[in-house]
Design goal:
The complex is a heterodimer of chains A (429) and B (78). With 429 residues, chain A is α+β, with helices and mostly antiparallel strands. Chain A contains 15 helices and 13 strands. Chain A folds into 3 domains: 145 residues, Alpha-Beta Plaits (2-Layer Sandwich); 160 residues, Sulfite Reductase Hemoprotein, domain 1 (2-Layer Sandwich), CATH 3.30.413; 74 residues, 2-Layer Sandwich (Alpha-Beta Plaits), CATH 3.30.70.20. Chain B is built from 3 helices and 2 strands; from the N terminus they run αααββ.
Chain lengths: 429, 78
């Protein structure tokens, strides 16, 4: 039984889902954490916030570890007398390994360290992918950081106006759709840009995310300033025998993912051909054909018939820029900027692109202006000029709204000084 | 402008504004030393934090920078 009465939080334990309230209570009862009162007082201040309908956390603060300008976020409670266990409740972001693969020993060691220096409460994982340690005091920060880096060989992630912790999908470690090694590029770029990750360099946050294919398991297109999404340039590979096996019911569609209920016999026309967004497929009862030039990589057919269809062999990635959550003008998805880029180590072409974007954003970006907002303000055309890229029809979301490309005088034959009389001789008003 | 001169100018500018403002965006530092490249200013500011002249303040999403000891400090948060 905790020291605070929490009737409203207790309601959150009654639903069908796992409850974070139960988890915190478990830590109160059984945790070996050094900050004894922290989980209990966390429940108390949360209940108070539910009663008052306002937060009791202050906004940010001056904390950090030596040499780093990110990874630690100061959190202070505005009710320190009533809830001394969370008076100082700083957050630590820990850089997750690529694709979040751990050994159980490593996880155990990490959590032992956190109980030694904090509340023992974690968020596995934060929305940027970090392991988040919730709640410690300033005097524990340096010892925690020293032991984490020296004994566990584990670094902090990004926060503030820094490069945020890069994140990737499972990639080639487990997935047949992966068009490049997402884990490798995530690891390489994390190492390459250590300075940007640990020391504030930008007008605001900047996120990379790496999806191995357009299924987008880390949702890079919605959640990162630079989305790198695997793609292919040649044709989808088709195994016609396997297509027939799906049609005849010998192979379960979607790799059996929806087999918990009887959906009836698999109907390739209804479930695949008719759902293709560009109508680029047809099946005559014997042969499946795909007009690959029209394929927009929606991945539906590949997902439904993974044993029959495979991504092409000429693989790389598309690079998109500018996604963000709603701040100024609502949620925004990334815009396709580089239709295809090879993704082979040491990723020099990708790094050149990143650095051009950063130089422009550092120069032109306003305080707290995300890259996507800067592109909106200065125009996509200006963005392409900075990146030294030519406009391409594949960059257009909707004709006449995105993007407007205006000709420059030097790009037009005769410039702006053509002979209007000669023109009018052939073209009446 | 040498690095030492830029360092001095940054400290003097921040001190002169300290009555009205204790925290600054990184971009504000670019304006203090316009002759230096942005990346050089960023590196110098980070160096001055390491040396103990400046300190970071972070909301979690945005980072601000100020003179060490100016503005609301850790001990005053209670």
């Amino acid at each position: 039984m905790g020291k605070h009465k929490t009737p409203m939080l207790d309601e959150l334990e009654k639903g069908p889902w796992p409850s974070f309230v139960s988890d915190i209570k478990q830590q109160v009862e059984n945790g070996k954490h050094v900050l004894k009162e922290a989980p209990d007082d966390l429940l108390g201040v949360m209940e108070l916030s539910y009663e008052d309908r306002v937060t009791h956390w202050k906004h940010g603060g001056i904390v950090g570890v030596f040499g780093y300008g990110g990874g630690i976020i100061g959190r202070y409670c505005d009710q320190p007398t009533n809830f001394p266990g969370v008076a100082h409740f700083h957050t630590v972001r820990v850089n997750q390994p690529s694709s979040k693969y751990y050994t159980t020993k490593f996880l155990g060691d990490l959590l032992d360290l956190w109980e030694k220096h904090g509340s023992g409460l974690t968020n596995m994982h934060g929305s940027t992918g970090d392991i988040v340690f919730l709640g410690t005091t300033t005097d524990h920060l340096e010892p925690l950081f020293f032991e984490m880096t020296h004994e566990l060989n584990q670094d902090l992630g990004g926060s503030g106006s820094n490069l945020r912790t890069p994140e990737c999908c499972l990639g080639k470690s487990r997935c047949q759709y992966a068009c490049y090694d997402t884990q490798e590029v995530c690891h390489q770029l994390t190492n390459e840009y250590q300075d940007e990750l640990h020391r504030p360099a930008f007008p605001y946050k900047f996120k990379f995310k790496f999806d191995g294919c357009p299924n987008g398991c880390v949702a890079s297109i919605a959640r990162s300033d630079m989305s790198v999404i695997g793609t292919w340039r040649d044709d989808i590979r088709i195994d016609q025998k396997a297509v027939a096996a799906y049609v005849n019911g010998e192979i379960k569609p979607n790799a059996g993912a929806h087999s918990g209920r009887d959906w009836g016999k698999f109907d390739i026309q209804k479930e695949v051909i008719a759902l293709c967004p560009t109508n680029c497929m047809c099946y005559d009862g014997k042969t499946l054909e795909i007009n690959n030039r029209e394929c927009t990589r929606c991945m539906h057919c590949l997902n439904v018939m993974p044993q029959a269809l495979r991504v092409g062999v000429d693989q790389g990635a598309s690079v998109l820029f500018g996604a963000k959550a709603p701040i100024l003008e609502g949620a925004q998805m990334s815009t396709l900027t580089v239709p295809f880029i090879p993704m082979e180590p040491p990723y020099d072409e990708l790094k050149d692109l990143i650095e051009k974007v950063w130089d422009w954003w550092m120069e032109e970006g306003k305080n707290r202006e995300r890259l996507g907002e800067l592109i909106q303000r200065k125009s996509f055309q200006e963005f392409l000029r900075v990146l030294e890229l030519d406009p391409d029809p594949r960059m257009v979301d909707e004709p006449r709204s995105n993007p407007y490309i205006f000709w420059k005088e030097e790009e037009v034959e005769g410039g702006w000084t053509r002979d209007i009389e000669a023109y009018r001789a052939k073209h009446q008003r | 402008m040498t690095e030492d001169e830029a360092r001095q100018l940054i400290l003097e500018t921040l001190k002169s504004k300290s009555k009205s403002k204790s925290k600054f965006y990184l971009k504000d530092f670019y304006a203090i030393v316009p002759d230096m490249k942005n990346r050089e200013v960023k590196n110098l500011v980070n160096k001055m934090v390491m040396e103990g002249h400046l300190e970071y303040w972070s909301s979690g999403s945005t980072t601000l920078i100020g003179l060490k000891g100016m503005g609301k400090q850790h001990a005053e948060e209670d």
